[in-house]
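Postdoc handover notes: sequence design on the structure in folder B. Input tokens:
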């Protein structure tokens, strides 16, 4: 059974993994609490530290912890809650400690996949080759998956895309974690091709493929625009993420 703690751990490891495409980004533990940060060169200091706060951790404990982080130019809090009441309470408590809310993102998970049948008439292509990966990089302007020195694609990442009118119009990516969990990091459809079922078709293809490979749970963080899509494809909200930053006046 998937727990919220497992889902948060999957998010944390996947987030650091993807951030490390450009610059080493690692997760450490400080008094049992996960802290994500860039991995500076010798003699330098981390530029950003992000504290991942699970639902059972009290804001007062985090505030005391942050007091020892003043050498970090930027500190962010990623606080998870389980209910609407807890979300509002956390917001009020962190505001009282001098933090401002940056954004709110619901966390979704899906474990019942029997309803996933791709009945939509789109060819969702899975990325298997370095040629496909390079084509996507050229089309999108950034790297979705890295290739090893031997030319083999990173096996932790799974990508599907849809081409229409000779162009890539939508893509989805997941990172295989542990405990049979995959984290869906990207679901994108070009604006002019939205509301045609492309996003739904891509989600069906990805989740079905992960499930066939033994990854029984899929987890993601949703924007307000994406929430309706995920709910319509079988995902259920399990937690709420609030991101906070310390107001300059309190530093």
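Designed sequence:
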């Amino acid at each position: 059974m998937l727990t919220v703690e497992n889902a948060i751990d999957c998010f944390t490891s996947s987030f650091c993994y993807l951030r490390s495409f450009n610059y080493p980004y690692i997760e450490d533990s400080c008094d049992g609490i996960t802290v994500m940060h860039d991995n500076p060169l010798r003699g330098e200091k981390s530029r950003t530290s992000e504290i991942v706060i699970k639902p059972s951790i009290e804001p007062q404990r985090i505030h005391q912890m942050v007091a020892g982080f003043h050498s970090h130019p930027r500190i962010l809090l990623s606080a998870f809650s389980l209910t609407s009441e807890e979300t509002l309470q956390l917001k009020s408590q962190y505001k009282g400690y001098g933090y401002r809310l940056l954004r709110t993102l619901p966390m979704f998970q899906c474990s019942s996949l029997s309803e996933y049948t791709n009945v939509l008439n789109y060819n969702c292509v899975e990325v298997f080759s370095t040629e496909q990966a390079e084509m996507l990089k050229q089309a999108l302007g950034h790297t979705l998956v890295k290739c090893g020195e031997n030319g083999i694609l990173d096996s932790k990442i799974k990508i599907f895309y849809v081409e229409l009118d000779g162009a890539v119009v939508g893509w989805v990516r997941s990172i295989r974690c542990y405990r049979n969990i995959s984290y869906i990091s990207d679901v994108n459809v070009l604006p002019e091709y939205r509301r045609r079922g492309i996003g739904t078709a891509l989600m069906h293809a990805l989740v079905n493929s992960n499930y066939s490979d033994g990854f029984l749970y899929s987890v993601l963080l949703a924007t307000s625009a994406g929430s309706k899509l995920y709910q319509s494809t079988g995902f259920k909200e399990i937690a709420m993420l609030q991101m906070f930053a310390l107001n300059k006046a309190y530093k």
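Context for whoever picks this up: The helical segments are 4-19, 59-66, 84-96, 130-140, 198-212, 224-232. Don't rerun without checking with the PI first.
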